[in-house]
Amino acid sequence: MAPQDKKPTGKARDRAAAAYAADQAAKRRRRQFVIGGIVVVVILAAIGIGIAVQHSNSQSNSAAANGPLVFPSGTVSDGLAVQYGSSAAKTTLTIYEDFRCPYCKQAESMFGPIYTADAQAGKIKVLYHIVNLIDRNDGGTGSIQSGSAAGCAQDVGNAKFKAYHDVLYANQPEESDDAYASTGTLISLAKQVPGLDSASFEACVNSGKYQPWVKKNYDALSTQEGGSVSTPDYLINGQSFELTTQPAATQEANFTNALNKAIAAAG
Fold first, then answer.
1. At what angle do helices 142-156 and 211-224 cross, to 10 degrees?
2. Is 179:185 a contact under the CB 8 Å cutoff?
3. Which one, out of 61, 62, 104, 227, has a CA that is 20 to 30 A from the CA of 142?
4. Cis ω on the peptide bond leading into residue 173 (within 30° of 0)?
5. Residue pLDDT, tens place only, 209-235
């Protein structure tokens, strides 16, 4: 008969438990070290990919911005402006704007419905000049990319431009968020305008075809303002309409009165 195993004493059990705990702790540390190393490698790889993508996008945008100057279909004023409204209208509202500019969005929210109604009624024509001021001040490429995309929308049709123009303002990101630098974002927003998105529109947006046009508009505004550029810039028959810090209702009334006065004077 085989001898029976002796039961371990309390001290032996304690030593065995301590040894087991120490072994498990060592294994956990080794696993954590390996997992931590993998996480660091993954993070570094992601950072590297992000930097590479940003560098690639930057190079692509730079190449497009310095490409040949071409104008969207149907533009006026030496090709620099997109016109909305009848050419027969005697009163002209000129707007210099940037889709990344928060003050431009504020002005558009106040004055857009007013001037749009007048343009649709044949009382005025609107000349849109898209510039890239925020890119120059804050960095990024969202201004020039969105401006170029708006030019691509004009190629599809004037009504598509106006609708896309309004969509870009309705979805404007925070000034510090350069979301409009992404052509994917700009193409996705175009889907909100029926009949705008197509293979040719997407190719136009992705190519940055009209970035030099946006730059040219900025240069024109800089010359007009003596080198000190600000947006938005509204002119009624060439006369500046100043935005103020007054309540929106007051500014809307002032804008309406200024337009009506110009329309009446033009006969």
1. 110
2. yes
3. 227
4. no
5. 999 999 999 999 999 999 889 999 999
> Whole-model pTM?
0.79
Name residue 94's beta-bridge partners: 127, 235
Three-state SS for 163-180 is: HHHHHHHHCCCCCCCCHH
Residue 125 contacts residue 89 (beta carbons within 8 Å): yes
**DSSP assignment of 208-242:** TTTHHHHHHHHHHHHHHTTT---S-EEEETTEEE-
The tokens for 218 are 């900025």
Q: What are the contacts of 166-175 at 24+ separation with CB within 8 A?
A: 166/108, 166/112, 167/192, 167/193, 168/99, 169/99, 169/104, 169/105, 169/108, 169/109, 169/112, 172/99, 172/100, 172/102, 172/105, 173/100, 173/142, 174/102, 175/100, 175/101, 175/102, 175/134, 175/138
Phi, psi dihedrals of residue 83, rounded to the nearest 5°:
-95, 135
